[in-house]
């Protein structure tokens, strides 16, 4: 076994009774959990909800943690650092995922009277023929590609903030502020009032400049671009800060050496700064993609997918599938397919990224 | 003595200087332009909350200059000076949503920071082996939760919470929010802990502290700035969360973003009250952003630079 970074000599003397006690409380509490669950399954009217089973489950995992210390002493105390978080994440992710899978293959509609019914692959067949889902997926590709533009802007701003300027702190705070705002508030502030066609300041400005009839959400391409801009507005600060941190970590002597060697600013950027920034850039873009794939709030509140689904993201599409049509079964299947696509996409991206990250020299 | 000037700026030097000034102007121009882009929507929202219908329609921009600020928008929220003393159902509603948001954001961030820091500390100090999972696998397991889109969890949670009677409760939101920010916390804290030398704990252990004692009394105070950074970042993300709140709450535990969103549906020309509501919703985080900017940047930078 590999060494711990923190090496501790301990003299654990765990008596067999103590170890047995540890084992016992696990099994007793597990038996209780099992008993309560069975009771709730076989006597459906016994309680209003599944809360009793939830409490029994909580008791069981608490006993599981205590038993680690009882059975393994010092080793158990170390495990206790990681166990609560692990158990928390597993119970919050795996149970719903398994649950979700079982819903995904049903025709469950919350407004239908006769509950859920297994319908095999019908949902997938329906998805295959659903032009709006494919449209939403295509939109996601466009939205994700917009990250490249955001990256260029963020990099430029980070370079400027890193140069010799006055009042750097003021500019940093000002540039950070959009990230603090909730997307819902942003969708009102920008999407519904500033971009309003009659009285919004931007439409007014457009008319001054000579655009006779400014409309921002009538035309599909325009509407999509507006959503991209609003999302970029909130998240450019995020990339900018990460890139700025990366720039500040570049050792000064490397840049001085480049200057002494007679590099022009452009060469300095292309041959020194950019390669050194590559790992940070990839991390920033990766996190940005992750956030982009969750994009929904602005779309739901500004356009609710319109005009004609042109601005729909997958998340907002599924949200409406549930909200308007109560189609739980179909919506869950769409979400699962989305997850599979993301996982495959990310695996490929990570493989590529680890190849790019390898230094050239 | 000083009649003859000995040193002259040559023409090339002067050209250099002109270029330098041009560059300065360009840089500050970009900076100011971007500052306007960042701050104008906030300025617009705050000023609009003091406007009346004619001001909105005429496109007046600058208070006191081309229109007189009125408390109309804030009065409709029950937060203007003349209504603050009276009873107001809208204000009660607003404060309730505000309180729900605060509770959900603070509790879930605390939960995530506590659980996440413990896990990050363990992963940075000890070698674990759970079945086939080793340290790197466990870290990856935590971080991979980031790519899980909320929409995948939303519907199963809706059904699960209904069975568990957790729908429309704050505790349900808190658990879910803690899950969504946990990977970020672990990412930041792992970085923090691995930059603290292990000799500190070794000394403490020699002096007779247990491993948890050493963690709580020695390491925690050192890592506190990092924890604050992780906490603030989680706070921002959870305070602004809309998607889960919109699906999982209906009456009792509706959060502020859901309230704002439900008001935007009724468009009309009622901009002043919407602007007042938006201002009230963004103000806490704007204040946090201005005061605690250092921590936010520290938190975001933690993952970027290794």
UniProtKB/TrEMBL annotation, chain A:
Transmembrane segments: 21-42, 54-73, 80-105, 140-161, 173-191, 232-251, 272-291, 328-350
Keywords: Cell membrane, Membrane, Transmembrane, Transmembrane helix, Transport
Subcellular location(s) per record: Cell membrane
Entry-linked InterPro entries: ABC_transporter_permease, MetI-like, MetI-like_sf
Domain of life of the organism encoding this protein: Bacteria
Family: Belongs to the binding-protein-dependent transport system permease family.
Name listed for the protein in its UniProt record: Sugar ABC transporter permease
TrEMBL record, chain B:
UniProt cross-references to InterPro entries, sorted A to Z: BP-dep_ABC_trans_perm, MetI-like, MetI-like_sf
Keyword Membrane part of the UniProt annotation: yes
SUPFAM superfamilies (alphabetical): MetI-like (SSF161098)
PROSITE patterns: ABC_TM1
Chain ranges of the ABC transmembrane type-1 domain: 98-292
Stored Pfam families: BPD_transp_1 (PF00528)
Localization annotation: Cell membrane
Keywords, ordered alphabetically: Cell membrane, Membrane, Sugar transport, Transmembrane, Transmembrane helix, Transport
Topology of this chain in the membrane: Multi-pass membrane protein
UniProt xrefs under Gene3D superfamilies: MetI-like (1.10.3720.10)
Transmembrane segments: 25-44, 98-120, 140-159, 171-189, 209-235, 242-260, 272-292
Cited function: Part of the ABC transporter complex MalEFGK involved in maltose/maltodextrin import. Probably responsible for the translocation of the substrate across the membrane.
Record family assignment: Belongs to the binding-protein-dependent transport system permease family. MalFG subfamily.
Protein name: Maltose/maltodextrin transport system permease protein MalG
